User: Fold Dihydroanticapsin 7-dehydrogenase from Meiothermus taiwanensis.
Amino acid sequence: MFHGKVVLVTGAARGIGRAIAEAFAKERALLVLCDVRPEGLEVAKRLGGLFVYADLAQPEHRERFVEQAVKQWGGVHVLVNNAAIAPPGSALKVGLDDWRQALEVNLTAPMHLSALAAREMIKCGGGAIVNVASVQGLFAEQNNAAYNASKGGLVNLTRSLALDLAPMNIRVNAVAPGAIATENVLEAIQMSPHPELTRQDWEDLHALRRLGQPQEVAQAVVFLASEKASFITGAILPVDGGMTASFMMAGRPV
Ligand code: NAD
Assistant:
């Protein structure tokens, strides 16, 4: 579906970003991946793509990421804003530095990268942007004020971009994953005092009563970026095993 199309994925060194890169590689996309983790280089090499070291908190790194993509493959067709951080802390406790960093990486970087990429997409006749938001962009979780706010912002940024870029034939959508079994999440479960109970608790948040797999998010991202979604823009697609289908914890019996 993406033969000859240039696809940029942020935060592709591991987790959901790596699964997204792998899914686009299967569709024969020309990949440009970025991350602050050096493992991103191995992922890019394995998938025949380009790796650009970029700290997305730095505006000039974002510019270099898009410039390198154009230099390598001649344009940009798809951008996936996946990289994010989640500094824990309640609204009372989150430090201003953590707050600013979360907003910069999770919200400002997707906005800036979308503008930079859109200018290149226009030259190619159009394109697609997919933002990786979260169920926490739709509802809030305790002790996660900065992440909740940044993902809520990303959800409405998705709609704004969809409206602003539609005349240029650029579609913009987002996925809102539930809990996904990435290294990150599995580590957090393992570090908890009762890993088995914690895992069960997390599974029970979903109507399907399990964690999602990174590939299940990746498939939704590829769909939204593809021609199969040609009349879909400004949509927020939950990939959450039914978590947000209920106002209660979806999988729990009443
Ligand atoms: P992860 O932490 O495993 O991966 C995120 C990647 O982004 C990492 O490789 C990290 O190095 C990179 N990154 C972080 N800060 C960066 C920066 N300043 N510049 C460049 N790269 C940077 O996380 P994940 O679980 O794979 O999550 C990926 C996306 O999915 C995130 O947007 C996250 O908010 C979202 N999400 C994840 C889950 C989940 O359960 N895992 C649920 C909902 C949403």
